[in-house]
Amino acid sequence: MSRKKMILDLDTGIDDALALAYAIGHDDIDLIGIIATYGNALTNVTAKNSLDLLDLLGAHDVPVFIGESHSSTTSDFTVMPISQAIHGQNGIGDVEVAASTRSVDSQNGIDFLIEAAHQYKDELIYLPTGPLTNLAKALEKDPSIAKLIGQTTLMGGALTVPGNVTPFTEANIHQDPEAADYVFKNQENLTMVGLDVTLRTLLTKKHTQEWRDLGTTAGQNYADIMDYYIDAYYNLDIDKKGAALHDPLAVAVAVDPSYVTTLDLNMQVTYDQESGDYGRTIGDKAKLLEPTISKAAVLVDQDRFVSDFQQMMLKVLA
Ligand code: CA
Fold first, then answer.
1. Alpha carbon of 145 to ligand 1 centroid (Å)
2. Which 3 state secondary structure label does DSSP give 33?
3. Which end of the chain has fewer beta carbons closer than 10 Å to its terminal beta carbon, N or C?
4. Contact at 8 Å (CB) between 67 and 134?
5. Is 87 annotated in the active site?
6. Residues with Cβ within 5 Å of ion ligand 1?
7. Catalytic pick among 11, 52, 224, 247
8. 1 confidence band (pLDDT: 50, 70, 90)
9. According to the model, what pLDDT value does residue 59 have?
10. pLDDT by residue (tens digit) across 126-172?
Protein backbone atom coordinates (compact mmCIF):
# COMPACT_ATOMS: atom_id res chain seq x y z
CA MET A 1 0.00 0.00 0.00
CA SER A 2 1.35 3.39 -0.94
CA ARG A 3 1.52 6.03 1.76
CA LYS A 4 -1.55 8.24 1.96
CA LYS A 5 -1.19 12.01 2.19
CA MET A 6 -2.93 13.18 5.32
CA ILE A 7 -4.00 16.61 6.55
CA LEU A 8 -4.95 16.82 10.21
CA ASP A 9 -7.29 19.67 11.17
CA LEU A 10 -6.75 19.87 14.93
CA ASP A 11 -7.94 21.89 17.93
CA THR A 12 -4.94 20.63 19.90
CA GLY A 13 -6.19 19.47 22.61
CA ILE A 14 -4.98 16.40 24.50
CA ASP A 15 -6.50 13.70 22.31
CA ASP A 16 -5.51 15.79 19.27
CA ALA A 17 -1.93 15.54 20.58
CA LEU A 18 -2.36 11.75 20.51
CA ALA A 19 -3.76 11.85 16.96
CA LEU A 20 -0.74 13.88 15.87
CA ALA A 21 1.67 11.37 17.42
CA TYR A 22 -0.19 8.41 15.91
CA ALA A 23 -0.13 9.97 12.42
CA ILE A 24 3.59 10.73 12.67
CA GLY A 25 4.36 7.18 13.73
CA HIS A 26 2.24 5.36 11.15
CA ASP A 27 4.18 3.90 8.21
CA ASP A 28 1.21 4.30 5.83
CA ILE A 29 0.70 8.01 6.57
CA ASP A 30 2.55 10.93 5.03
CA LEU A 31 1.46 13.87 7.21
CA ILE A 32 1.66 16.81 4.79
CA GLY A 33 0.32 19.49 7.12
CA ILE A 34 -1.74 20.44 10.11
CA ILE A 35 -4.49 23.04 10.02
CA ALA A 36 -5.15 24.75 13.36
CA THR A 37 -8.71 25.33 14.44
CA TYR A 38 -10.53 26.60 17.54
CA GLY A 39 -12.21 24.36 20.12
CA ASN A 40 -10.24 22.98 23.04
CA ALA A 41 -8.34 26.30 22.98
CA LEU A 42 -8.15 29.39 20.74
CA THR A 43 -6.78 28.83 17.22
CA ASN A 44 -3.43 30.56 17.89
CA VAL A 45 -2.97 28.38 20.98
CA THR A 46 -3.83 25.13 19.17
CA ALA A 47 -1.40 26.14 16.37
CA LYS A 48 1.37 26.67 18.92
CA ASN A 49 0.59 23.36 20.60
CA SER A 50 0.83 21.52 17.28
CA LEU A 51 4.15 23.17 16.41
CA ASP A 52 5.60 22.41 19.84
CA LEU A 53 4.47 18.77 19.74
CA LEU A 54 5.73 18.25 16.18
CA ASP A 55 9.16 19.49 17.25
CA LEU A 56 9.05 17.39 20.42
CA LEU A 57 8.51 14.31 18.23
CA GLY A 58 11.17 15.32 15.71
CA ALA A 59 8.70 16.10 12.89
CA HIS A 60 10.33 19.43 12.12
CA ASP A 61 9.25 19.46 8.47
CA VAL A 62 5.46 19.24 8.94
CA PRO A 63 3.96 22.72 8.39
CA VAL A 64 1.15 24.18 10.49
CA PHE A 65 -1.47 26.42 8.87
CA ILE A 66 -3.96 28.75 10.54
CA GLY A 67 -7.66 28.00 10.04
CA GLU A 68 -10.79 29.76 11.24
CA SER A 69 -10.82 31.26 14.74
CA HIS A 70 -14.57 31.03 15.35
CA SER A 71 -17.72 29.35 14.03
CA SER A 72 -19.45 30.22 10.76
CA THR A 73 -22.31 31.89 12.64
CA THR A 74 -20.40 33.89 15.28
CA SER A 75 -17.85 36.70 15.23
CA ASP A 76 -15.67 35.39 18.03
CA PHE A 77 -15.06 32.33 20.18
CA THR A 78 -14.68 31.62 23.88
CA VAL A 79 -13.38 28.25 25.08
CA MET A 80 -16.09 26.29 26.93
CA PRO A 81 -15.33 25.82 30.67
CA ILE A 82 -15.77 22.06 30.28
CA SER A 83 -13.08 22.02 27.56
CA GLN A 84 -10.68 23.83 29.88
CA ALA A 85 -11.47 21.42 32.69
CA ILE A 86 -10.68 18.43 30.46
CA HIS A 87 -7.73 19.82 28.47
CA GLY A 88 -6.25 22.47 30.82
CA GLN A 89 -5.87 26.21 30.30
CA ASN A 90 -3.23 25.73 27.59
CA GLY A 91 -5.06 22.84 25.87
CA ILE A 92 -2.38 20.26 26.67
CA GLY A 93 -2.95 19.59 30.35
CA ASP A 94 -1.02 22.68 31.49
CA VAL A 95 2.18 20.82 30.65
CA GLU A 96 5.10 22.99 29.51
CA VAL A 97 6.42 21.52 26.27
CA ALA A 98 9.60 23.17 24.90
CA ALA A 99 8.59 25.98 22.54
CA SER A 100 9.15 25.39 18.83
CA THR A 101 11.40 27.84 17.06
CA ARG A 102 9.24 27.52 13.95
CA SER A 103 6.24 29.70 13.14
CA VAL A 104 3.02 28.96 11.32
CA ASP A 105 3.02 28.83 7.52
CA SER A 106 2.05 32.06 5.76
CA GLN A 107 -0.56 30.29 3.60
CA ASN A 108 -4.11 30.22 4.98
CA GLY A 109 -5.26 26.76 6.11
CA ILE A 110 -8.36 26.78 3.92
CA ASP A 111 -6.34 27.59 0.80
CA PHE A 112 -3.85 24.89 1.74
CA LEU A 113 -6.66 22.33 1.94
CA ILE A 114 -8.14 23.36 -1.42
CA GLU A 115 -4.70 23.25 -3.08
CA ALA A 116 -3.92 19.82 -1.59
CA ALA A 117 -7.30 18.46 -2.77
CA HIS A 118 -6.46 19.43 -6.36
CA GLN A 119 -2.90 18.17 -6.11
CA TYR A 120 -3.44 14.80 -4.41
CA LYS A 121 -7.10 13.96 -5.16
CA ASP A 122 -7.77 10.28 -4.27
CA GLU A 123 -4.49 10.04 -2.37
CA LEU A 124 -5.59 12.66 0.17
CA ILE A 125 -7.12 11.93 3.55
CA TYR A 126 -8.54 14.96 5.33
CA LEU A 127 -9.04 14.35 9.03
CA PRO A 128 -10.72 16.97 11.22
CA THR A 129 -10.81 16.35 14.97
CA GLY A 130 -12.46 19.64 15.92
CA PRO A 131 -15.28 21.81 14.51
CA LEU A 132 -16.03 21.41 10.78
CA THR A 133 -15.79 25.16 10.09
CA ASN A 134 -12.64 24.96 7.95
CA LEU A 135 -13.99 22.29 5.60
CA ALA A 136 -17.34 24.08 5.25
CA LYS A 137 -15.48 27.27 4.39
CA ALA A 138 -13.27 25.45 1.86
CA LEU A 139 -16.34 23.80 0.27
CA GLU A 140 -18.02 27.15 -0.06
CA LYS A 141 -14.94 28.60 -1.74
CA ASP A 142 -14.36 25.61 -4.04
CA PRO A 143 -17.28 23.14 -4.20
CA SER A 144 -15.24 20.79 -6.44
CA ILE A 145 -13.27 19.53 -3.42
CA ALA A 146 -16.40 17.62 -2.28
CA LYS A 147 -15.53 15.02 -4.94
CA LEU A 148 -11.77 15.58 -5.13
CA ILE A 149 -10.68 14.77 -1.57
CA GLY A 150 -10.16 11.00 -1.53
CA GLN A 151 -11.50 10.47 1.95
CA THR A 152 -12.70 12.54 4.89
CA THR A 153 -12.70 10.85 8.29
CA LEU A 154 -13.88 13.02 11.12
CA MET A 155 -13.99 12.72 14.89
CA GLY A 156 -17.31 14.06 16.03
CA GLY A 157 -20.99 13.36 16.43
CA ALA A 158 -23.05 10.74 18.22
CA LEU A 159 -25.59 8.50 16.50
CA THR A 160 -26.37 5.61 18.85
CA VAL A 161 -25.23 7.11 22.18
CA PRO A 162 -26.00 10.44 23.91
CA GLY A 163 -23.89 13.52 23.22
CA ASN A 164 -21.31 14.91 25.64
CA VAL A 165 -22.50 18.53 25.61
CA THR A 166 -26.25 17.93 25.54
CA PRO A 167 -28.18 14.63 25.33
CA PHE A 168 -27.99 15.02 21.52
CA THR A 169 -24.81 16.97 20.85
CA GLU A 170 -21.17 15.99 20.74
CA ALA A 171 -18.63 18.79 21.46
CA ASN A 172 -17.04 19.22 17.99
CA ILE A 173 -20.41 19.34 16.27
CA HIS A 174 -21.73 21.67 18.99
CA GLN A 175 -19.11 24.28 18.10
CA ASP A 176 -20.58 24.85 14.62
CA PRO A 177 -23.64 22.73 13.75
CA GLU A 178 -24.41 24.72 10.59
CA ALA A 179 -20.94 24.07 9.18
CA ALA A 180 -21.25 20.41 10.17
CA ASP A 181 -24.62 20.12 8.42
CA TYR A 182 -23.14 21.63 5.26
CA VAL A 183 -20.24 19.18 5.38
CA PHE A 184 -22.46 16.11 5.97
CA LYS A 185 -24.76 17.08 3.10
CA ASN A 186 -21.99 17.83 0.61
CA GLN A 187 -18.68 16.13 1.33
CA GLU A 188 -18.37 12.74 -0.40
CA ASN A 189 -16.72 9.63 1.00
CA LEU A 190 -17.08 10.82 4.57
CA THR A 191 -16.77 8.62 7.65
CA MET A 192 -18.01 9.77 11.03
CA VAL A 193 -16.02 8.40 13.95
CA GLY A 194 -18.16 9.61 16.84
CA LEU A 195 -18.81 8.92 20.49
CA ASP A 196 -20.50 5.66 19.46
CA VAL A 197 -17.05 4.15 19.06
CA THR A 198 -14.56 6.50 20.71
CA LEU A 199 -16.09 6.18 24.19
CA ARG A 200 -15.27 2.45 24.06
CA THR A 201 -11.52 3.00 23.57
CA LEU A 202 -10.03 3.80 26.98
CA LEU A 203 -6.47 4.49 28.06
CA THR A 204 -5.28 4.21 31.67
CA LYS A 205 -2.34 5.30 33.80
CA LYS A 206 -0.93 1.79 33.36
CA HIS A 207 -0.37 2.72 29.71
CA THR A 208 1.07 6.17 30.44
CA GLN A 209 3.45 4.69 33.02
CA GLU A 210 5.01 2.72 30.14
CA TRP A 211 5.47 5.99 28.20
CA ARG A 212 7.12 7.49 31.28
CA ASP A 213 9.36 4.45 31.68
CA LEU A 214 10.89 5.08 28.24
CA GLY A 215 12.96 7.78 29.97
CA THR A 216 12.64 10.24 27.09
CA THR A 217 11.44 13.87 27.22
CA ALA A 218 8.67 13.01 24.75
CA GLY A 219 7.57 10.06 26.90
CA GLN A 220 7.58 12.19 30.05
CA ASN A 221 5.71 15.12 28.43
CA TYR A 222 3.08 12.93 26.79
CA ALA A 223 2.53 10.96 30.02
CA ASP A 224 2.04 14.21 31.97
CA ILE A 225 -0.37 15.52 29.31
CA MET A 226 -2.38 12.29 29.17
CA ASP A 227 -2.51 11.86 32.96
CA TYR A 228 -4.15 15.30 33.22
CA TYR A 229 -6.85 14.01 30.86
CA ILE A 230 -7.27 10.70 32.70
CA ASP A 231 -7.60 12.61 36.00
CA ALA A 232 -10.18 14.94 34.43
CA TYR A 233 -12.21 11.97 33.19
CA TYR A 234 -12.12 10.52 36.70
CA ASN A 235 -12.81 13.74 38.64
CA LEU A 236 -15.57 14.96 36.33
CA ASP A 237 -17.10 11.47 36.39
CA ILE A 238 -16.96 11.15 32.59
CA ASP A 239 -15.42 7.67 32.92
CA LYS A 240 -13.64 6.22 35.93
CA LYS A 241 -12.12 3.30 33.94
CA GLY A 242 -9.92 5.47 31.70
CA ALA A 243 -9.94 8.31 29.17
CA ALA A 244 -11.35 8.01 25.64
CA LEU A 245 -9.02 7.92 22.63
CA HIS A 246 -11.37 10.03 20.48
CA ASP A 247 -9.05 11.68 17.95
CA PRO A 248 -6.40 8.97 17.44
CA LEU A 249 -9.14 6.40 16.74
CA ALA A 250 -10.24 8.52 13.77
CA VAL A 251 -6.67 8.49 12.41
CA ALA A 252 -6.45 4.72 12.82
CA VAL A 253 -9.81 4.16 11.10
CA ALA A 254 -8.79 6.38 8.19
CA VAL A 255 -5.96 4.01 7.27
CA ASP A 256 -7.48 0.77 8.56
CA PRO A 257 -11.28 0.81 8.36
CA SER A 258 -11.39 -2.75 9.73
CA TYR A 259 -11.15 -1.34 13.29
CA VAL A 260 -14.83 -0.37 13.05
CA THR A 261 -18.19 -1.51 11.74
CA THR A 262 -19.95 1.22 9.82
CA LEU A 263 -23.47 2.03 8.78
CA ASP A 264 -24.05 3.55 5.32
CA LEU A 265 -26.19 6.63 5.92
CA ASN A 266 -26.79 10.05 4.42
CA MET A 267 -26.62 12.35 7.42
CA GLN A 268 -27.57 15.82 8.53
CA VAL A 269 -27.04 18.00 11.58
CA THR A 270 -29.97 19.80 13.17
CA TYR A 271 -29.31 23.41 14.14
CA ASP A 272 -32.68 24.95 14.95
CA GLN A 273 -32.01 26.62 18.32
CA GLU A 274 -35.63 26.16 19.41
CA SER A 275 -35.99 22.48 18.56
CA GLY A 276 -34.30 20.95 21.61
CA ASP A 277 -32.09 18.65 19.52
CA TYR A 278 -29.64 21.38 18.44
CA GLY A 279 -26.46 19.87 17.06
CA ARG A 280 -27.72 16.33 16.55
CA THR A 281 -26.03 14.09 13.96
CA ILE A 282 -28.82 11.99 12.44
CA GLY A 283 -29.99 10.38 9.19
CA ASP A 284 -31.19 12.81 6.53
CA LYS A 285 -34.86 11.93 6.02
CA ALA A 286 -34.91 13.67 2.65
CA LYS A 287 -32.17 11.37 1.33
CA LEU A 288 -33.17 7.96 2.67
CA LEU A 289 -33.57 6.54 -0.85
CA GLU A 290 -30.56 8.24 -2.42
CA PRO A 291 -27.10 6.70 -2.86
CA THR A 292 -25.12 7.23 0.34
CA ILE A 293 -22.11 9.57 0.53
CA SER A 294 -21.26 8.90 4.17
CA LYS A 295 -20.82 6.21 6.82
CA ALA A 296 -21.11 6.30 10.59
CA ALA A 297 -18.92 4.03 12.73
CA VAL A 298 -21.13 2.23 15.25
CA LEU A 299 -18.95 -0.61 16.60
CA VAL A 300 -15.22 -0.86 17.25
CA ASP A 301 -12.70 -3.59 17.96
CA GLN A 302 -11.57 -1.70 21.06
CA ASP A 303 -9.06 -4.22 22.39
CA ARG A 304 -7.16 -4.40 19.11
CA PHE A 305 -7.17 -0.63 18.72
CA VAL A 306 -6.03 0.21 22.26
CA SER A 307 -3.26 -2.38 22.01
CA ASP A 308 -2.10 -1.11 18.57
CA PHE A 309 -2.32 2.50 19.79
CA GLN A 310 -0.11 1.72 22.78
CA GLN A 311 2.50 0.00 20.55
CA MET A 312 2.50 3.04 18.26
CA MET A 313 2.99 5.45 21.16
CA LEU A 314 5.86 3.39 22.58
CA LYS A 315 7.53 3.59 19.15
CA VAL A 316 6.91 7.32 18.62
CA LEU A 317 7.88 8.40 22.14
CA ALA A 318 11.04 6.27 22.33
CA1 CA B 1 -10.07 17.52 19.05
1. 23
2. strand
3. N
4. yes
5. no
6. 11, 13, 16, 129-130, 247
7. 11
8. low
9. 98
10. 999 999 999 999 999 999 999 999 999 999 999 999 999 999 999 99
Alpha-carbon span 32 to 160, nearest angstrom: 33
Q: How far is the CA of 226 from the centre of ligand 1 (A)?
A: 14
Per the prediction, the chain carries an average pLDDT of 97
Helical (H) or strand (E) element with 295: strand 294-300
Of the listed 181, 224, 246, 247, which one is catalytic? 246
Q: What is the pLDDT of residues 235-280, one digit of tens each?
A: 999 999 999 999 999 999 999 999 999 999 999 999 998 888 999 9
CA atoms within 13 A on the CB side of 54: 26
DSSP letters, 95-113, are: --PPPPS----SSBHHHHH
CA of 9 to the centre of ligand 1 (A): 9
State the Cα torsion 260-15-152-189 to the nearest 10°: 20
The rounded Å distance from CA 274 to ligand 1 centre is: 27
pLDDT at residue 275, as a whole number:
84
Alpha carbon of 246 to ligand 1 centroid (Å): 8
Query: Active-site residue 60, yes or no?
Result: no
Sheet strand arrangement including 294-300:
64-66, 29-36, 4-10, 124-128, 151-155, 190-193, 294-300, 260-264
